[in-house]
Fold these 4 entries.
Entry 1:
Amino acid sequence: MSSTPTSTDYSSLSNINFTGGFPTSADLAPSIVFLVIYAFAIPLLLFRWFRRSDRTTLLIRPTIFLVCRIGMLVIRAYMSKNTYGEGLLIAELVLVSIGFLFLIEPVIGCWKLQIDSDMSQEDRPRWVKRLATLLKLTLLAAIITAIVGSSMISQALGSDYYMSVVKSLRHASSVLSFCTVVIAALAAILTSVKFSLDKRGTIFILSTAGCLIVVAVYRMVQNFTTDHDAPVNSRVAFWVLQMVFELFAFLLILGISIPTWFPGDAGRLSRNNTVSAPDVEAYQMRDGQGQPKNY
């Protein structure tokens, strides 16, 4: 974005399209609105953690996301009305860059659990586990490049070389995150069609992934755009295409009981009595080993 802080000279950074740009007074109101929304989401997240039937390690990443977003919004609200230094700017840039990346892993995890829930171990294609692992590694690379790129801002202030490195790392992070979430969505579609998986789970995965794809596309286009006055660099684009859609994805993840929707191998029959006794017997007979077949 084209706006720059008046209190500190960061004009040398103007050729980098920072997601969200330099905070100004116009950011105060939306920062407070989103801060209130995320504050109201805390009880729901705690409820998911403390309720045994909802608890899952897949909630770790959304929890980190919530901490990142609350921290970023507090910092951004402060920066919009006060002078700030290099350290605060870097902290805000890191939190903006990595926040939404933590919402991608639950999508990958739910897709993997959907396979485990709907198919017996011997029927599962081996490429699913390999692809899930590859996507998680790619996502980790996106997080690392985003953190390193933002943390090198101080060196970039006085060096064309480091400025180029920062831009390259940011570009790499945006491309990696885009590829990860798009491939995860395509994989969910493929497995759902090919193996006739639970449609409810597929709709959830694709809805969440769809919101994250909007964010990923926005970030990638915004990072590669050279025109600082382009619409994608506007303040409205940031608050709508990133902040709103990642909020939708976050609320979708919190809105369901992940272990109930995606019980995996061990928990399918503990869906709060959603599977009837005749269903259990039918699947036991299908499996032929006295164990209900995951479907």
Entry 2:
Amino acid sequence: MKNAIIYTVLFAALQVVVSIVTQLVWNRLLGNSGVMGTEFMIGTLIAFNVLGLILFLATKWAVVSRNWIRTRPWKVLFWAAMASVGCIVPSMWLQEVMPELPNLMQEGLEELMGSRLGYVVVGLLAPLVEEVVFRGAILRALLKWNQNHWLCIAISAALFGLSHFNPAQMPHAFLAGLLLGWMYYRTGSIVPGIVVHWVNNSVAYAMYNVSMAAYGTGDPTMAQVFGEQRVLLAVLFSLCILIPAIYQLNLRMKRA
């Protein structure tokens, strides 16, 4: 437990330190007149993710092995991708029916999602780095601390949700963390989680940009997208993807 907390605090502290350093460098180069726009934010996030990846791999806090992928688990990865697709609409519906939570990072998220370079952070770096840190290091440490794997998975999912520093994102991140943690526990590998994370973030990125073009907003209601009468049908259809995917994963996932 102690190591898991240390890893979480260090990961959060790294983000703060990188933000301060990049701001100082930016001001040094451009002076106080330098506008910290989207490019600055994306550059900061890229630096943070790359440094975080290097830190956790170099110290071996996260242990990454090729053993699992050498078993050629292509069907597991396929069903992992399907599970991610099946989660999207139910997650949107849940977000709409829950009490509205403050979106402290709405402006920054919109800038990130609306930028082509933002995909490097959202679709490539975040899935890799967050799986290395939260499953490869934090959950791994928790599983050594306690034999109750669901308790460990729940704690790691809660830490994953809190690490987003944004109440509006926390419920989805927590639920995703449960799925990602379960997959790591069953396989001992971060690869299935990376696939789920990549599909989820890539679809979210694509949906934001399509929605901006179609509706003038990156966060349309489900009624706008599917029509008032078809919202529950969309949820049920997605569950018809998600539930078989979870069933297949439960059958097929195993350690190397």
Entry 3:
Amino acid sequence: MARLFAAIVPPADVVEHLDEFLEPRREAGEFRWTLAEQFHITLAFMPSVADHLIDEYADRLADGLARTPVPVVRLAGPLAFPNAAQTRALAVGVVPESEGADVVLERIAGRARNAAVTVGTEVDGQRFRPHLTIARLRRQADTTNWVRLLETYTGPEWPVLEATVLASHLGEGPGKRPRYETVAEIPLGQ
């Protein structure tokens, strides 16, 4: 069984831009910061996928994304889950920059979830809310000041050219974090 998720992985320049913004701030606060090489926007998370279904999932997702237009987005704006007063995760929002990009992102996430259901695997999570998690907290805390700080961040825009299917191997990464393995990179249609 594999822990699998479909995601949008930002291009290197977008990752570098956000990482440079966060770097001088990482010593403050009791956060467990997301490593820059693991930045992603989750489309669908599947906690337990039978190994023999992984390739089939990627194929179904490819079928679903074949005619999907390329949205242009940027990272900007703070998100605190569940809220700023009782935060467990701190994130940066995904802002649509091209016409209809918000609808296209919803469609991409929906197709990632539908592909999972089609192959007979469970999808975890709630309604899609596009974001990139930058840090987690062990205990809930008030992050109002961090939210204000993140309001000042606006990243470069980029076209979302593909979705990536990743396997998550718990405890195998640096500092006992998960290690992500790319299973498939699926281009969006034009």
Entry 4:
Amino acid sequence: TVSALLRLQARRIEDPGAASALNEAVRRIASIALVHETLSSSSDNDVAFDTVLTTLITHALELSPRMGEITIMREGELGLLESRLATPLSLVVTELMHNALEHGLAEQGSTLSIKLARYSNECVVTIIDDGVGLPDAFDVSTSSNLGLQIVRTLTENELKGTLTLTSTDLGTTAVLRFPL
């Protein structure tokens, strides 16, 4: 698979930055592949997103650079989503979880909460970490972080939604809203 080839290449690269970039590409490809795998076993164009999310959470924990104990709490459901929404949403959620696991959470005893809500005309996904928070002057709209650029682009262009990030000394909250 493409992911396997990239993993092999990453193991051969001596530059830690380049290896990290390839591993991030593997993570992103795996998110897309998961939705497509789910679609291939379905008879229609809908994806059971809650099932996809369970696998995304498992993968995020397995690939996490954090060595300490991390708890992921999950609340709510989104149910069936059209593939046109499920694919970008899986990437957005993967990126937000990865950012929290890599940058936001403390080494031990940290919690990442994922709250899902589906209404008649919109879905809301909230991801909350109890980590260090964002830098004071942080602005998601001007961030040069590739993961957040991907999140912003997919949220605005594919999901036609909005993303807000708020931060305190108690952690960071990302709220993603998108229409159905």
